[in-house]
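User: I'm writing a tutorial on reading structure tokens. Could you give me a worked example: one chain, its sequence, then its tokens, then a sentence or two explaining what the tokens reveal?
Assistant: Sure. Here is the example chain.
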Amino acid sequence: MRSLAMLKPVRSILWSVALLLLGNGLLNTLLTLRGTGEGFSSAVLGMIMSGYFVGFICGTWVSGRLIRRMGHIRTFGFCASICATVALLHLVFITPWVWLPLRVIYGLSFITLITVIESWLNSQAASHERGRIFAVYMVVNLGALATAQQLLRLSSPQGFLLFVVIAILISWALLPITMTRRVQPKISERPKSSLRALLGFAPLAVACAALSGLAMGAFWSMTPVYATQLGFDIAGVGLVMSVAIIGGALLQIPIGRFSDKHDRPKVMTWVVLLAALVAAAMPFAPSHEMLLGLYFIWGGLAFSLYPLAVAQLIDQLHPDEIVAGSADMLVMHGAGCAVAPIAAGSLMTVVGGHGLPIYIACVFALLGAYAIYRRRRVTALVTHTAHFEPMVQSSAEALEMIFDDAQRDLFDDPSFYEPHERERLRDALTSKA
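And here are its predicted structure tokens:
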């Protein structure tokens, strides 16, 4: 009963995010399958799918200004209408040179929708309940993404029904949030930070955010092509995606909690090397069932890397700079995701479908090698261990919700940094790059 009472202020928001992510998760996979059916090459599909992440990055800078100008509900309605319209326009103009700008527009609008949702969650949740509410939000998030893949069973990607379902789901996401009687929150200005400063004293965390993006962007965009080329039917493609997402949902927490109690860079190194090994084994899987098992394990490892990188950064940040520094990590992860579909798609065009796991294995092997180098040659400045929080690529508002209590606790701890280190890090992070 207490848990239900805790969720009452944010119930309408959670319904909206579930419907929104059902539509978004289905659209991302559907476009890859439809493009394959239309004869688009893997390289062309990679370029198209990268457009979403380009829009995502641009939206991280635009969304706050738009919300401050229009308010949360009007911004949500504005961007949801754009997303639903863009989903249908893919049916009207079936050409790569139209799909690419449509993906950019969609990505920009979608991250604005997520910013609206997460800033509203942040304001409605009591400070002592934010961690639990964020956990529920992540369950809804990953559950909707996994369920969305199973909606592929409704109809053929070559038809129009699935695109209509996506538009309906995104439009329905408007209903719970526009019916709420709660006061709209205000969105604050984001503190400025310096990526150059982050690279100076937390390079492993930044590298992990960027390179995990290079891998995860390829997974989201090109896995449907890979599964199709291996002989999976449409339902099988959805199953491959769902299995990886479920693996990520189930294994993130035990991996993260283990990293809280042990040397986090060492845990990160083992996770990324194991993820590389699992990806490298995929071309040799003797059956579809074995490949599904590998995707489950890989999903658990790969989905853990970005939150591990954020936790590693928090280990090394002054409390005042947690949100700003973590927002920079989000941009780096998004930049990696934007490049990934083009790189993976180009490799798949040259060497075939198995180019995807080969690409992912190489990216993770590179990150693992760098992590080993950093651990042997450089000692990180860590005097406090942050708590791992499971997450997927999100907005800066979610990062504030996760780490708000942590900031307060750390700020009250006089031993967090020596005084001269505290001032050095604050000056470095707040100065412009």
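What the tokens reveal: The chain has a mean pLDDT of 80. DSSP finds 17 helices and no strands in the chain.
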